[in-house]
Amino acid sequence: MRKQLTKLNKLLFLSLIIGFTACETQEDQIVLHEVKFDSFGGSSVETQFIIPGDTVTKPTDPTLEDSEFMGWFKNNEPYNFGEPVTEEFTLVADWKDIYSPIINPDATPYITEVLDFSPAPGQFINYVSIEESKELIIGDNYQFISLGTYGGSVTFKFDHSIMNGEGDDIAIYGNPFEDNSEPGIVMVCQDLNHNGIADDDEPWYELAGSEYYKDETTHNYSITYYKPGPDDDQHLIKYKEKYGDVENEGEMDFNPVKPFHEHPMFPNDYVEDEITFTGTLLKSNTWFEDMGEWKYYHNPAYDWGYADNRGYENEGILRGADLFDISNAVDADGNKVELIAIDFVKVYTATTEIAHWLGERSPEIVKAADLSLLPTTDE
Ligand SMILES: [Ca+2]
Ligand SMILES: [Ca+2]
Ligand SMILES: [Ca+2]
Ligand SMILES: [Ca+2]
């Protein structure tokens, strides 16, 4: 909508700007372009009337609670305030959520809710349903869940945000013992919109452990497992894996564990006949000694930064716990990310190792805690 200069105040305004001293009838013919500002829920910004060919004066940035102003946009492009105005238009504000941690004065140290449990095939799967398994790691408990082979994961939260304090912040308890580490990669996520769930647009960050930057570590690894048909061997799981330009097909053979675990290895609870996992793959450091009749398997611990890995070295209340520092968070491209706190934690199996009769190298998760709420070990 173009506005004719009909009102006295606009006449005066225009006269001041362009120094017109001529009579009203000439001024009346100048058409100003109206530039509106849609602050998209933020504080309002005054409309400007621009002389054709002039530029818009960049207004003071609007404000919006829990949001950072990202700039003014015209037709979804950032607006250039140096551009001469030739028409009327509306500039729209763009906002980014500012994360604010959830503070709970009655916060408890341990997991309060398991949001997701997505096991991969494995020898300990199918003993308990997925729904029942979710209850096992809540609170200060001594039961555990096994995640299955590569990619199997559990996602949980607490009754508050875990702050990124000095040093380690999160304790994740497994059942590792010397020479039997089963590494789980840990990821974290912020509940930007405080709705209690990890939404698709809330990014996950890996807590980079000791192996993250090594050449032998594969990033953006993806594997799909296929459920055996009713007449097929339930201990042979076909898979397809992809990373970089590589695509492989194969079979994971769980038959050596069959004497101990006769039931099917593919999780019964999945509706689909296949399941895909994506993430970082650690090169397995499993090795064995040939004892003639059988092989003795060694699963050495990795240096640091994995669940069910090295917690046997800790004492007291931290016995069995691997410790994690939120400051090790990296984004999908491996860039360091500074997070003041986190709300969701995900742990997934880091290797595809199947150590013959010992079965898949899958982390067990017993419980997890906000380290800042645990009594210190010397108390
Ligand atoms: Ca920290
Ligand atoms: Ca959310
Ligand atoms: Ca295991
Ligand atoms: Ca274990």
Structural notes for this entry:
- The chain has 379 residues and is mainly β.
- It folds into two domains: 3-97, Listeria-Bacteroides repeat domain (Immunoglobulin-like, Sandwich), CATH 2.60.40; 113-373, no CATH class.
- The chain is 6% helix and 34% strand.
- It contains three helices and 23 strands.
- The strands form six sheets. Strands 1, 2, 3, 4, 5 and 6 form a six-stranded mixed sheet that branches. A six-stranded antiparallel sheet has the order 7-9-21-11-12-20. A four-stranded antiparallel sheet has the order 15-14-13-16, with no helix packed on it.
- Strand 17 (287-290) and strand 18 form a beta hairpin.
- The longest helix is centred in the N-terminal third of the chain and has 11 residues, at 8-18.
- The model is unreliable at 1-23 (pLDDT under 50).
- Bound molecules: calcium ion (CA) (4 copies).
- One calcium ion (CA) binds at residues 191, 193, 195, 197, 199, 202.
- One calcium ion (CA) is lined by residues 174-176, 182, 308, 363-364.
Layout: helices, strands, pairs:
Layout (H helix, E strand, L loop, with lengths): L2 E2 L3 H11 L5 H4 L3 E8 L9 E3 L16 E8 L2 E2 L10 E9 L15 E6 L11 H6 L9 E2 L6 E11 L6 E4 L10 E6 L14 E4 L10 E9 L9 E8 L2 E8 L20 E8 L5 E4 L4 E4 L22 E4 L4 E2 L10 E9 L14 E2 L1 E4 L9
Parallel strand pairs: 2-6
Antiparallel strand pairs: 1-2, 2-3, 4-5, 4-6, 7-9, 8-22, 9-21, 10-19, 10-23, 11-12, 11-21, 12-20, 13-14, 13-16, 14-15, 17-18
The structure holds calcium ion (4 copies).
Organism: Flammeovirga aprica JL-4
Subcellular location: Cell envelope
GO cellular component, one term: cell envelope
